[in-house]
Every structure is written in C-alpha cells, then in structure tokens.
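pinging the channel bc i need a second pair of eyes. not urgent but kinda urgent?? the chain im working w is below, pasted from the shared doc
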Amino acid sequence: MLPYRVGDECPVEWRERLYDKYNSLLDSIRLKPESVFPWIVADALLDSLKKRSPRFVSYSYAKHSAGPEIADWLSGNCEDLADAFTYICRSLGIPSGCDEMLMRGDNNVPHYWNFVPDDHCDAFFCSLLYPGPLIQSHTYDAPRGKVYRRMFSINRDMMKMMSQPPEKIHPTFRYPLMLDVTDIYSDCEQTICIPESRFLIRPERDELIYLCLPSHMEWVPVAVSKYRNGQVSFENVDGNAVFCLSSYRDKQLVPMTVPFWAHKELSYFRYFGNGEGEERVTILHKFNLFIEPFIDRMVGGVFEGSNDAGFRTRDTLFVIEEKPVRLQNVVYVSNPKEYRYLRYYGPAGSYCNVSEVGFYREPNDMVPLQGRVIGTPGSFGGDKGHWYMSAFDGDPYTSFDYNQPDGGWAGIDLGKPVSVGKIVFTPRNRVNFIRQGDKYELFYAGKGGWISAGTTVANSDSLVYNVPKGALLYLKNHSGGVDERIFEYVDGEQVFW
C-alpha cells in the first residue's frame, strides 16, 4: 500500500491540497481519546463526507484510474468512490485501501469498497455508498465468491504458483496486483476441489484452470489454480453462487465443466446441465426482482368499492398481501354487490405507486369497465406524467406517483352501480417483466455451452418453454434492456443466482 498512489493514475502533487480541503472534517474527533484508533477517525470522516451527498453513477469516468480529482467530485461508480475515499484518508494519515470482487456472485458486475485495518489484522468495511457506519468486514453480507485487496506490488506467491509465460495467463491474473482476503470477509470459506471426471475437456498437465463467475452469458475468472494429480483445487472460496471452470487457450476462455452451484457452508456441489427429461417453465421476468423497488410498495394496498363519491362508506374488494411478481396480476372478486365508484388505495409510505388498474364485470371479460377517472390530484415533484390518470390509461409502463407518501388513491366513476368479478393490476415497474411485443430467446446451459431453447415474440406478460429438467437458464431480450441474469426453475418459480 503506497500512500501516494491508488492505481495507474498519472502521478501529481495532491496530498497537501486534499489535506487542506478535508482536514477540518476531523475537528469533531481530533481531541477525543478514541482518536488514536484509525477506524474511529475514519468513521467520523465517512459520516461527514456522506453529508455531502456522494453521487453514484453506473459508468466510469475513464478507462484508467481517474486520479485524485475524483476526491473533489465525490461522484462516480463504486470503484471511483472507493478511490476517492482512499485519497482523502491517506491525505489525512488514515490507513485505507480498496477491496474488490472481480465479479459479484449475484450480479453481472464487479464491486469495490474501502477497508480500514483494525488491531487484529482484520478490517472494517466502509463505503461512501453504504448507508451505515463502519462495520466489521465479516458482517458485510454480499455474495462474494472471492475477495481481493488491491496492492501496488505484484503478488509473487501467486506468480510462483502459476509459473507460466505472461501470454499464457489470462489478463486478469497476468500481473496480479492483489491479495486474497476472502477469509476476512467470510466465516464459511471452503476449498473447492473438482476431479477430472467432471471435466468436459481433459486439462493438460499443470495447466492453469480458472474459477469463474457468470456475467450475463460470459464467465469471468475470479481465481486461478493448477490442474494436478487428476484434480484442481481452489482455496478460500465463499459459496452460495454458481461457478464454472475454464482454461485460457488461444487468447480466450474455454469452459471446461458445466456450471455448478456451491453450498455456502458444506462441501457440496450441484451440477447443472442438459440432463434427463424435460419440464415446462413459465417465465415472468428476466432479472431478480430486487431491481424492482416499487413492487414492495403495493403490499397492503386495497381495492375498494363505494356508492359514495367521497368513499366515506366503502367495502374492501381485495387486499394485496404479497408483492406482485408479474406484470399483470389477476384477482377474482366474489362480492355480488354493485358499486358506482371503484378505486385502488395505496398503503402508507407507497406514494400510491401503481401502473395500471382494471375492473371487470365478469371473470371472463377481456375489456375493463369504463368511466370517469378520479383520484387524489398531484404527483411527486410535480411531474404531470405521474398523475392518477396514468393508472387507467392502458399503458403498463406509465404510473401514478402521488406527491405524499400516504393517502393517495386512483379510481373510476362508472356513472351507475355495477358489480365487479375481476381486478387486474400492474405494479409500477422498471421494464424487467415480460413485455408484450418484445422478442425473447431462452438459453439453457449444457455440455456445449449455452444452447438456445427458441426465440419468440411475447404475446402476454409470460413466456412458456420446454427445457431440460433442472437446467440453468438465461433469458435474452433482443428488443432492448441490459438487466438479465442466470436462473433456474424450482417448484414453479424462477430462482435467480
């Protein structure tokens, strides 16, 4: 760890300037007895910097390290912000650096954050993007696979283990400026040992084999070892992720095994592939629903009917008790009573987020009831594109976003009392669900790599395919979008990894 360099940035005079700029942020802790502990000082510094609202962006400012100017901007992706905090800490005499996952175990991107060492050769996790204070590294709960500490010197032990000419080593590990610190972050690290019988292609003697994590339909190396004595072993691996072994031949990665899932605590592996039998799968979305933050806001929402325009007396037709997992969610109403006024009332804290609501007279009707759209006026930020009328415009990608967290509702005046037999609703969404009219292609992982199960144009909010039972799957939207992730089909549901 060098106090004046972060990576491959251009060396410039910067430490004094950043010291003068940020030194006053430590005034609140400077004279306290606990200021002798670097992690306590770093915690106070981090708290002050977060009040300046660091801004995350999903792109990088430069191909190489942005340099110390990133500490002035406090803006960028997780790597940029980790560099910024490193510069500021080191200018103030606080030991800090950057730890990284070359690829996340649950997403298609790498990840970077800061560490501050403690007295036990461990570390505190910290990040300008993390909402809380510093935490012990082993309590940072994120699917990891492998974690490395960025270094300025080359890892000679790793180079000695590989003992190959640089051109035969994958670029990620060709000049490894990194140190394996997975054991600092995981209480369940294990050794992954794969025998020769599991290889699709027989490795050469002493050939380098790479442990890879998925990124979209590619495999990214996160560890390297040698094939010896009919097997290959990788130490200190954090499980609960899908891996694949590859070799580096003719300047490209060659998959050597089918993908497999490693248990987090046990030395247990489950291999995917085009096995025996077929199963029918119903696909509702192409990425884990954690990127759809608005669906949680519908839990507790209520559909109501009334013959009073002010809904002073009203009946509950349906309460949403679980977060919706598809674009069009259908519920059936058994109440025969007739109502002139119908509405969706959003739960507390939801800003009445809803994209589309349709009330139907009969369960088999395909056309919703029509009427005058009513609701609470106003939208968050004054955006007229998010008024209550959006919930009844027939477009599942426009939505109501009320200007208050509580009390919002959207409904229709039918002009006369009518009974309701069915309700169809769509949550506010970020286009992760299946889009009618988009072109999709489903792939499954087999012994020949990714194999197409067919291309189709969606005519509803779901896709149905026949695939090998228990296969690892990937859905590609050829019409647009970038958020796609591997998954399997378990008990009638998509399980993303």
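so The mean pLDDT is 93. and Residues 305 and 311 are 8 Å apart (CA to CA). — does that match what u expected or am i reading it wrong
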